[in-house]
Amino acid sequence: MAHKNIEIEIQVNVENSKPLIEFLEKNGTFQSAKHQVDEYFSSAHRDFLRARPVKEWLRLRDSDGKYSLNYKNWHFDENRKSHFCDEFETKIEGIDKIRKIFSALNFKSIVIVDKLRKIWTYKAYEVAIDSVKTLGNFVEVEYIGKDEKVNPEKVTGEMVDFLKKVGCGKITRNYVGYPFLILFPKEVKYEIQ
């Protein structure tokens, strides 16, 4: 995370992830392999799904028995493309009590994203190879550098260039994320990079 509470990342499909994995195994640092189940919620008094593209996501995550609560508020450019979001996340002791709190506040579960994630770090990037149930395989690259004055659009362009240089072939980018891909597949606009 470049800025405190700011996330700069891309999510893409790549034609061939093998060169990327080989590159990361040789040049990166393997961090972990995790099974993550993300449950997303929306409020009855403020429906997050009403806006297009969806700007806000509220998530409960079970990552191999470690739990977190996360809120993201995406920023879009004039072309309705996202390059970064405000992100607030905290660890929680148990997921069931949060679900009960959400229920009492009339928050409804809207979608579950179930994925296997392998994570490496390389220079200022965290690179995740995700296998997402019902969606397939993806690559996420997140900026974890220390420079707080970076331009998010420039950084996301550099991420795409990195994937091209590694030899991933055709790169197909979405700007909406896994929950939107599951909920509204016909509304997704992909961009070949």
Short key terms for the protein model shown above:
CYTH_domain, Adenylyl_cyclase_CyaB, CYTH-like_dom_sf, Hypothetical Protein Pfu-838710-001, 193 residues, CYTH domain-containing protein, 10 strands, eight-stranded antiparallel barrel, alpha+beta
Summarize the structure.
The chain is of the alpha+beta class. It has helices spanning 18-27, 95-104, 152-166, 178-183; strands at residues 6-14, 29-43, 56-63, 66-76, 82-92, 107-122, 125-132, 136-143, 171-174, 191-192.
- Based on secondary structure, the structural category is alpha+beta
| Arrangement of strands in the largest sheet | 1-5-4-3-2-6-7-8
How is the main sheet built?
8 strands, antiparallel, barrel
The dominant shape is globular
CATH superfamily: Hypothetical Protein Pfu-838710-001
Mean pLDDT: 95
Helix content: 10-25%
From the alpha carbons, calculate the radius of gyration and give it in angstroms: 17 Å
Pattern of helices and strands: EHEEEEHEEEHEHE
- CATH domain class name: Mainly Beta
Overall number of structural domains = 1
Number of H/I helices: 4
If classified by CATH, what would the architecture be?
Beta Barrel
**Cα separation of the termini:** 23 Å
Q: What is the CATH topology descriptor?
A: Hypothetical Protein Pfu-838710-001
Low-confidence spans: pLDDT under 50, at least 5 residues?
none
Number of strands: 10
Q: Which percent range describes the beta-strand content?
A: over 45%
Domain CYTH: 5-181
Pfam family, one: CYTH
InterPro entries: Adenylyl_cyclase_CyaB (IPR008173), CYTH-like_dom_sf (IPR033469), CYTH_domain (IPR023577)
Protein name: CYTH domain-containing protein
